[in-house]
Amino acid sequence: MKENILVATDGSHTANKAVEFASEIAAKFGSNLTIGHVLHRRADIDELAHMAEAEHLIKHAAREAPAEYDTPPATMGALLADMQSGAETARLITLIGDELLARAERRARDMGVKNVAQRSVNGKPAKAILDLAEEVGADMVVLGHRGLGAVRTLVQGSVSQKVNQHATCTVVSVR
């Protein structure tokens, strides 16, 4: 069976389903599970806002961000608008990624996975996932069929399609 499973998450609904699927397999067969997240440094503000709002990360990010708030901003767009430098925005994006990874790891451990690692990486999503799979020695990659960039993929092609076409290991796309 698979010894090293990589599951990629962007915080979307299908990515959460992928985390559960990968966790179920890893728990059942005692596989190592690496949860990977590609930081959205070049992402559209709407994608970041959707991720943070859908996962209720705004309060967490506002609490951890260097800016001071009497009350957290109501939307991710408002939070990013309050950030004063590129360094603050980068820190916020990293904090959101860290929280997504932590939540995914908690879910995996709750499902019985013993060996869980987290990795956040930079880059274009498909290439970053492929590179991470190679780095961790993954013999299976699990990812959601559609993530945050669903509309844009109509023109550019989906991350799951690219990973499936170029991976040297088994790829499972969860719907």
TrEMBL record:
InterPro entries: Rossmann-like_a/b/a_fold (IPR014729), Universal_stress_UspA (IPR006015), UspA (IPR006016). Residues 3-175 form the UspA domain. It holds the Pfam family Usp. Belongs to the universal stress protein A family. This is Universal stress protein.
